C-alpha cells in the first residue's frame, strides 16, 4: 500500500489536492470535528484541563480558539488530548483500506506530531503566500491571531519542502491543478513500480 501524506502551509489547498488524487482520504480535520461533536470523554478531559474556556458539549471551536489566543501553550494541552484519538482513527482507516493500492493522508501537523512514518510518500502543496492569505480571509472562522499561533507550531515551510518526495504547485486554478495532480499520480505510480 502506498500512503501519500499531503503537507503544506495552512490554506495552501491540501484538502483539495487530497480529493483530486481520487483515492480514500483520511481527513484529520473532519475527524476532529466528529470528535468534538460526539466524544464526551474528550470533552471532559478538555474541560478539566481548560475549565476557563471549555463550557459546552458538543465542543465549540470558538471556545478552544479563545483558549489558544489567551495562552498559546494551551494548543499543546489540546493536542495532547485530541491527537491520540486521531491516531486511533487513523489506525482504523488504514485497516479498513489495507487492500487498496493507495490511500491519502490529509493530516495537519503530520510531521510536527510525528505521525509521519518512513514509508509515507510526502507531497508538498506549494502556493504563494498572497494567494493563501486571500483564501484564508474568506473563511468564516478566520482569525489572524489564532493563525499566527498555529504557525508557531509548524515546521518552517523550507524544511517541509526538503522532507517531501514531491512538490505540487497550486495557483488555485482548478484545471491547472487537476492536470498537475494527474501528472503527480503517474510519477508516484511509476516510481513505486521501479522500486518494487
Characteristic key phrases:
single chain, 196 residues, alpha/beta, Rossmann fold, 2 domains, five-stranded parallel sheet, 9 helices, 5 strands, 56% helix, globular
Question: How would you describe the overall organization of this protein?
Answer:
There is one protein chain. This protein is 56% helix and 13% strand. The chain has 196 residues and is of the alpha/beta class. It folds into two domains: 1-24 and 100-196, P-loop containing nucleotide triphosphate hydrolases (Rossmann fold), CATH 3.40.50; 29-96. Strands 2-3-1-4-5 form a five-stranded parallel β-sheet, with helices on both faces. The mean pLDDT is 90.
Briefly say what this structure is.
By secondary structure, this protein is α/β, with parallel strands linked by helices. The chain contains nine helices and five strands.
Q: Please, what is the CATH homologous superfamily of the largest domain? A: P-loop containing nucleotide triphosphate hydrolases
Task: Please identify the structural class as seen in this structure.
Answer: alpha/beta
Order of the strands making up the biggest sheet: 2-3-1-4-5
Label the CATH architecture of the largest domain.
3-Layer(aba) Sandwich
Shape annotation: globular
Number of strands: 5
Provide mean pLDDT, rounded. Answer: 90
CATH T-level fold name of the largest domain = Rossmann fold
The total tally of domains equals 2
Estimated radius of gyration: 17 Å
Low-confidence stretches: none
Classified by CATH, the class of the largest domain is: Alpha Beta
Number of helices: 9
Strand content: 5-15%
